[in-house]
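Entry 14. Ran structure prediction on the chain below.
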Amino acid sequence: MMSRILAILSLMFFLGTGAFVADSPVPPNFSQLVTLRRPVDLPPLPHLLGNGELTLIDGWELESQNTDFGGFSGLHAMGDGRLLALSDAAVLAGFTLASGKVARDSFVARLPVRKGERSSKQDQDAESLTHDPETGRFWVGYEQLHRIRRFSPGFARAEATGKPDVMQGWPRNGGAEAIVRRSDGSFVVFSESRSVRPGVTVGLIFASDPAEPGTSVKSFAYQPPEGYRITDIAALPDGRLLTLHRRFNYISGVSAKVGLIDPAQIAPGRLVIPRIIATMAPPLPIDNMEGIAVEREGGQTIVWIISDDNYFTMQRTLLLKFVFSEASASPRP
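Output, structure tokens:
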């Protein structure tokens, strides 16, 4: 019964049915501290998922008194445990994982806005994040008004905003949910819900910077796992792509699946179907999983997954840490 109640409460917030309003405005809190604690439902570690391609090795609940903290829909790993989490209110939180209860070098700040551009919620619904390690620049995908904005290194300023014509017919809440810059300078963008046919959504391949006008763009089709929607994407060191998907069910609540894509699959006019390598569901720590990132650490490939708490006290900002490895020869029963 309790799981069903929690599922229904979660659905209310996934559908945006409303929010609690206090009798009087709560003054903003600008704390820059991010605290860490282990989830009570963290299983004995390490914990293998699926055939062992993903192994859960740690996990935390992230909290901050900062009014803007939470709602994370994008994630990027800068290396050495340094993470950048982007919220759907265009707020960036940076922190480095530490052994204690407080993250190191943490900050919470709103993204800069280009001069002359508006900064309302409708204009700042950020959903996805990618990075060029050579130039240090970042790109952020926005939905509702469907744009892709380029930022200078360190997010010091907003440099350019692209409004690709091909994205303007997408559903307001089905925009650039996942974006990745590939090593050849091209970009791949996934719509969360722009449908090609039932169960199949639109993906775009930009030949170069999508924030610049006139960039050549081609489309392909993407088939997520049945009942799931894509929420983020990250590139492995060898160029393969990991995709994160989320599902809500009235009975079982929230679950997530991680897929693996060979980059050769992504081509104009092709149907891309990921190979699912892991499923996350209760009793594992799980919430509205929306962000995924990859980095190398001590000779291992590390995968980070973060949840969007929808700014709701009954949800959590979970950060889970996995090791990625090739599948074992014998699948687990």
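Residues 2-14 form the longest helix (13 residues). Will compare against last week's run tomorrow.
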